User: What shape does this take?
Amino acid sequence: MSIGQLDYQLFQSINEWASSASFLNPVMIFLAKDAFYLFFIGLLVYWFTRSDKNRRMVVESAIATCVGLGISFILGHLFYRDRPFVAHTVHQLIDHAVNASFPSDHAIGAFAIATSIALFRKKDGIVWLILAGLIAFSRVWTGVHYPGDIVAGALIGVMVSSVVHQVLLQSKTLSGWVNACISFYEKWEVKIWPLQSKKTQQATPQEK
Assistant: This one.
């Protein structure tokens, strides 16, 4: 049995649950279509905590995601693969354009961000990695990706985030550019949203 045949059989087994366990379909549709936005919301929350560590984490997440999607674009053209609903009769629960199935952009983005978070905040990272896994799985359940697309996307996301993290740790030049960009942003941010000093924060309750 070829890898392609094994991938299709595994796809059939998972996608069939859309019929046999249809009570879970609303959850899977949410995960496949909308849950990815939770990553953007999470990154915004981390960013506006105004922590240096969190801001660096968000920047690394953005860089890793962009690099990962760039790799996906190239692979999608070099190794074009139709989506399952093009070549087979499937339980397709969400609409999707007829474009390259391999690798999964959702898996790349979700795992790139989740891995970046895990490298800075291990406990938080576990939660985000679980969410990334659920999103990836739901893309098979809803009929728009093969399991192989998901596995490839997850591996790309994890590897790209790890490489970006190591490069920025070891390169003083690149790390300096990242810090400079964050500092430039913060100079303008503080004019709109001034920081409260610790003395001010401590004095405020006493004044009340």
